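Quick start: what a row looks like.
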Amino acid sequence: MRIAILGGTGSFGRALAARLVALGEDDVVIGSRDAERASETARELGGTRVEGATNDDAVRGADLVVLAVKADAALATAQAVAAALGTTPLFSVASAIEFKKGVGCFPDPEARSLAERIQDVVGAPVTAGLHSIAAANLDAAPPEEDALVCGDDDGAKLLALEFAGKVVAGRALDAGPLASARALEGLTAVIVNLNRRYKAHAGIRVSGVE
């Protein structure tokens, strides 16, 4: 599979790319607004199956595009690559959350998830997931966590589940329609609050599912 990771020079995108490069099973394209920065990150990761490109060039020819930019840039990035993306499935991993000093982290007050809003601006099927997994948990080894994935298009969801299964040691689980991203993105705020309160690297394991 050829996987493009937009935002692959950032902490989470780079961690995802590093996990794929370590596995050596897929061709990985790191996308960025700055092609040279993307290429530099690809060189740092090493391997013969990773390269860097502009976001537009990265999505062309990809089987799956992972939107791993920061939440405040996700909609604009999706809009910018929509034409080049065409109908290639897009996997959104960002969560729009709010920090209030002295109080904690809060879910996005918007009624609809960021992933649903991204679906509004692209012609490709959008899936969402990995919201409970931190970049720090990906650095050393595949985290012993489950990855929750949601989406409305069955084919796109299968690709997203396959991808998610590559980056965790736990299971990639189908969490239902894209509307479930409202809960999954909000879960990021819960994880952040747990990590801050207990000085931990919390993750999610789902019990009772084989």
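That is the whole record. The helical segments are 11-23, 35-45, 55-59, 71-85, 114-121, 135-139, 154-167, 181-198. The chain has a mean pLDDT of 95.
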